[in-house]
Amino acid sequence: MDFNSHADAIVRVAVGLVNELTPGERRGRAFPLPRDLAAAAAEGLRTGYPNHREVTEGEAGELAEIAARLRGVFDAVATGDVDAAAMQVNGLLEETRARPLLDRHDGEPWHLHFHGPGGTMAGDWAASCATGLAIVLGSEFHDRLGVCTAPHCDRVYVDVSRNGTRRFCGTACQNRVKTAAFRARGRVP
Ligand SMILES: [Zn+2]
Known about the structure:
Bound molecules: zinc ion
Shape: globular
CATH class: Mainly Alpha
Oligomer: single chain
Helix content: 40-55%
CATH architecture: Orthogonal Bundle
């Protein structure tokens, strides 16, 4: 995909936050809201930013609320309702007052941040994730946000494959479905 690398990382964070912080099902099993929300939130953020700092309980709670909103965007795209996804992203952009600002820190080159004015970590991530998803929805790759199609899994993904044919959250679910199909064929005379 042709997003800039910072936007790519932000979209990966959005995926990570949804997958770690929204209850549902994962790879064939129930996935309740994690008991250690702070650890789960940090893991979600590290999906895009491997060196992200630890997260406090309070921040994790806020991030979980944001993750629920972000999931709505993936759900809408997965059901083919890109209009609804766009409306949800616009709502988040307005609420978080995301705005682009070039920043340079920690020895990195200049890069775009999309922070809101609130100055909280969760608020900054809400603004950034909303912007990242807006970049995807506003591009020719608008249908690349997805929800796993394997049975009993609702984890989300961003499809960066060349032909855009991804259907699963990961290889575990892909293999699960393949194995089930193989067994089903074996039973048919
Ligand atoms: Zn899955």
